[in-house]
């Protein structure tokens, strides 16, 4: 059956090609997202990958598996995208009636976007994979990957996340096994010391639900003390594409106080992103309608919140969330 599909696809049968590649589509999208940190960029690069695979399918010789061949195309398309300068630029602070405190720092990965859990499917991991599925898609991990040089990012994902062997990665990247090993060593060193997440409770567990429920009550009631009590001492706040970053409970308190003092009353609609609890945030207007103002993604550490990222309202639709609540 597989041989017949390959023969038909080589002969130009588009339906056979789709049948061959569709089982790999979602995991390739996740791969492109890890490489690029942007859901939109990942989708664009996935489309380029499938087009290149279709146009070049006559050259697929079957020496490697179809999955490996597709990963080779996708990875090299992602490397091209990483090298280009066409990245989403930083934005100025644009929250009306709120004067933010001086940021602790300015983030460089302003193009970061969250990935809906609804699109996540467990990609097959090889025997050499070093990361768990949830860790390998977390916002902290994806952010850290963006700070690595492109080829180091590719090697680390292919080896430590997906578990491809060194010789397979070398063939994908048209390089030597020695170069792959060297790049992997440098990539691992580059990740060392970065915030890659702590010890989150299991997704959907009673422990996770307890923290999330406390956060929702505190945020919707603008209870600053209750909110701050949930934060770790080194809590990290970010808001791509606005580059402002805040580290530490004290500055987080000042930041959230400014939000709450603007007489803002929110409604939060739960969803999940990057294997983490997330919420569509809606601000109640004078017309009685709650308008979407963004998406919050929480990073949990035991029974506390160690990070919160806020993203623009333009991504709500990708999570199946409306732009307003009536």
TrEMBL record:
GO terms for biological process: DNA-templated transcription initiation. Residues 22-88 form the RNA polymerase sigma-70 region domain. Residues 212-305 form the SnoaL-like domain. SUPFAM superfamilies: NTF2-like, Sigma2 domain of RNA polymerase sigma factors, Sigma3 and sigma4 domains of RNA polymerase sigma factors. Keywords: Sigma factor, Transcription, Transcription regulation. Residues 140-189 form the RNA polymerase sigma factor 70 region 4 type domain. GO terms for molecular function: DNA binding; sigma factor activity. It holds the Pfam family Sigma70_r4_2. It comes from the Bacteria. PANTHER family: ECF RNA POLYMERASE SIGMA FACTOR SIGG, RNA POLYMERASE ECF-TYPE SIGMA FACTO. Interacts transiently with the RNA polymerase catalytic core formed by RpoA, RpoB, RpoC and RpoZ (2 alpha, 1 beta, 1 beta' and 1 omega subunit) to form the RNA polymerase holoenzyme that can initiate transcription. Belongs to the sigma-70 factor family. ECF subfamily. This is Sigma-70 family RNA polymerase sigma factor. It comes from Kribbella qitaiheensis.
